[in-house]
């Protein structure tokens, strides 16, 4: 673990104990860049911890009128998540249990402290805090991505490696009229108007090239077809093994209908519905080619 720049706060009403703890830290973390602050009372500790950024707090049980448990609970109620190592001269297991329940990272008896034991606990607390922060950041990122998918204006489908549907977003239901309960576990090919062979060619392309794009006929709840622009690609784990497939679909029925209307207007007379000269010339050119 990188011990550079560790900022430590000692909260202890016994100055001699605080000096000893500080010496233990310097001995056990020799060569590291340490900032160690010392506070003697509850009233000073609470606002200092709130406004300063400490990597770990060493908190004594005895703090005058109010004890370390009160301070620990106050910190957690305020949403301050700095790792706390609870120190006491009391060999009371009930205090240890209460401290851990209140959110302490570790609990140590002063009578059994040593540089190695204390610094091992500090390293553990700092490293655990880093992992928890990364975990929270990852969870926040997942929530953000999940919200984006849920609110997406296009269809998002996730399947297992066999093409069986495991997730659809709300846009899927809006377009197709099918509820998730109706299609979860269903193979994706059954939702398409394409043949199994055509769908197999799509999966083959995904596996070979990492992505496939094209246009398909989809099916709505009543069986009516609609045009969809489809993109399919694999989701891989850290080792590169395919674990899922993600399929993104966009309803392009209106666009296809507009294209068909434009083409008809270009080649057929709008009044009679008969082929016009442009279509005749095109056919003639092809025939003479």
Radius of gyration: 33 Å
Structural class: alpha/beta
Largest sheet: 5 strands, parallel
Which segments are poorly predicted (pLDDT under 50) over 5 or more consecutive residues? none
Give the helix level as a range of percent: 40-55%
CATH superfamily of the largest domain: Response regulator
Quickly count the domains. Answer: 3
Description of the structure:
The structure is a single chain. By secondary structure, the chain is α/β, with parallel strands linked by helices. The protein is built from 10 helices and 10 strands. A 5-stranded parallel β-sheet has the order 2-1-3-4-5, sandwiched between helices. Strand 8 and strand 9 (225-236) form a beta hairpin. The longest helix has 36 residues, at 115-150. The protein is rod-shaped, with a radius of gyration of 33 Å.
What order do the helices and strands come in, and which of them pair?
Elements lengths: L5 E6 L3 H14 L5 E6 L2 H10 L4 E5 L7 H10 L6 E5 L4 H10 L3 E4 L5 H36 L4 E5 L5 E4 L1 H7 L3 H4 L12 H14 L2 E8 L5 E12 L5 E10 L1 H15 L9 H12 L1
């Amino acid at each position: 673990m990188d011990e550079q720049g560790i900022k430590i706060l000692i909260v202890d009403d016994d100055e001699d104990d605080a000096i000893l703890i500080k010496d233990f830290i310097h001995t056990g973390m020799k060569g590291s860049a340490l900032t160690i602050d010392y506070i003697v009372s509850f009233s000073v500790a609470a606002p200092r911890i709130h406004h300063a950024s400490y990597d770990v707090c060493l908190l004594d049980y005895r703090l005058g009128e109010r004890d370390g448990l009160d301070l620990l609970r106050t910190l957690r109620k305020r949403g301050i998540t700095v790792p706390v190592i609870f120190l006491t001269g009391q060999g009371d297991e009930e205090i240890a249990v209460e401290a851990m329940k209140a959110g302490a990272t570790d609990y140590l008896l002063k009578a059994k402290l040593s540089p190695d034991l204390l610094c091992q606990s500090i390293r553990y607390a700092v490293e655990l805090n880093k992992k928890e922060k990364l975990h929270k950041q990852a969870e926040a990122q997942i929530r953000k991505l999940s919200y984006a998918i849920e609110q997406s204006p296009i269809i998002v489908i996730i399947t297992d490696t066999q093409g069986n549907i495991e997730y659809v977003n709300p846009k899927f239901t809006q377009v197709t009229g099918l509820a998730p309960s109706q299609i979860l576990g269903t193979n994706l090919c059954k939702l398409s108007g394409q043949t199994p062979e055509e769908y197999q060619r799509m999966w083959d392309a995904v596996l070979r090239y990492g992505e496939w794009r094209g246009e398909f006929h989809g099916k709505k709840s009543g069986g009516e077809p609609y045009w969809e622009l489809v993109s399919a690609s694999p989701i891989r784990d850290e080792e590169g093994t395919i674990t899922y497939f993600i399929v993104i679909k966009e309803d392009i029925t209106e666009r296809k209908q507009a294209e068909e209307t434009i083409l008809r207007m270009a080649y057929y007379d709008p009044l009679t519905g008969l082929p016009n000269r442009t279509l005749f010339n095109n056919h003639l050119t092809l025939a003479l080619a």
